[in-house]
Amino acid sequence: IFSKDASERLQTVMDCRDLPPEAAAPILWHVFDHNLTDASLREFAALALGFKPNNRSYEILTRLLETDDCDDVRAAAAAGLGYLGDARAFDTLRMLLFEDHSSRARASAAVSLGMLRDPRSFDCLIQSLGEEKEGAHDMARACIGALGELGDVRAVPHILGFSRSGDFVTQQILAEALGNLACPEAEEALKFLQNDEHPNVQKAATLSREQLAVRMLGSK
Q1: Taking the complete model, does pTM exceed 0.90, yes or no?
Q2: pLDDT < 70 stretches in the chain
């Protein structure tokens, strides 16, 4: 991390994936304590603070969301908070979802709100679902996936329309989300998606129908 070679510094941060959190911590702290200017370095380090958590992860990630000018770094910091799973992040992620100018950062906030599984996220995600700004596909995909993570069946009527979106990635994410939403309407939508022309959508719908059958049986 002290190398003058940018590629070596980046590789050091990426290698944190294979280190225990306590060993990765001082490397990741160095990136932010010394204000290293390489955006790629900050992006990977922010993400690593989430899946290699330490006692400063929350503080550094929330600060990045408030102060870093790079869209990709803020998106990575939002993702890091999702991996971290700290309930305190809800308000910060909610603000990012509604106020950040970057579609990537907003979509990342939506995904992380789903990962927190905080019921308060439901209304935020529904409100953002129909966003028609640049990157709208990304936002729809993020919100649909996050609503699936929440598992609140009230989401179903709001997301069913995307079964005819014509975008196979969105339809695949929809099929995966419906597997977590145990209700008859989800079952019918999955039957429809099983007949989609794209094999990825077909496969996701089939797996989700199997998953849904188990969930609905358990709820009886």
Answers
A1: yes
A2: 132-136, 219-220
